[in-house]
Amino acid sequence: MNALTNLFAPDCIALDVPAKSRADAFAAAGDLFAKQTGIDANSVVGFLNAREELGSTALGAGVAIPHGRVKGLKQPSAAFIRLQESIEFAAPDGEAVSVLIFLLVPEKATQQHLEILSSIAQLLSDPTARDTLSSAKDPSIVCELLQRWGTTK
Q1: Model-level pTM?
Q2: Which residues of the chain have pLDDT under 70?
Q3: CA-based nearest residue to 61, from 135, 137, 125, 121
Q4: Are strands 97-106 and 67-70 parallel, antiparallel or unpaired?
Q5: The pLDDT of residue 153
Q6: Which of the residues are catalytic?
Q7: Which domains does the chain possess?
Q8: Which of 12, 51, 83, 134 has minimal CB crowding within 10 Å?
């Protein structure tokens, strides 16, 4: 078991989202989290924007990990979004982003938050995993990769 095992389900994965900007991608994430957690979609966007104002969460190589701390949230919650077309995201390598793993954590979940972010960053730094996430046609394939990441290494 790893930090990602229980975070993802097929209903929190959206493939080929037609977002044209970071705001569109965050709105799509807000909708997924609203269904998953019951938190208002606009509030989710606010949490994500607040973190993004501190600096870009893009890692490079076309991926980003937008995340935020949410007062009142009991458990970490995650969503995966792959965009139809890459968007500008102020990545360190200048590359546009098309794969985003969103994370919301309880306000006080410091150690758990860091462990989850570390696992996601390791996953996204693996070229084979990135290729699978970028090309999978079915949310269940993405979900399985996310849930099993690191368990066979």
Answers
A1: 0.94
A2: 1, 109, 150-153
A3: 125
A4: parallel
A5: 46
A6: 67
A7: 10-148 (3.40.930.10)
A8: 134
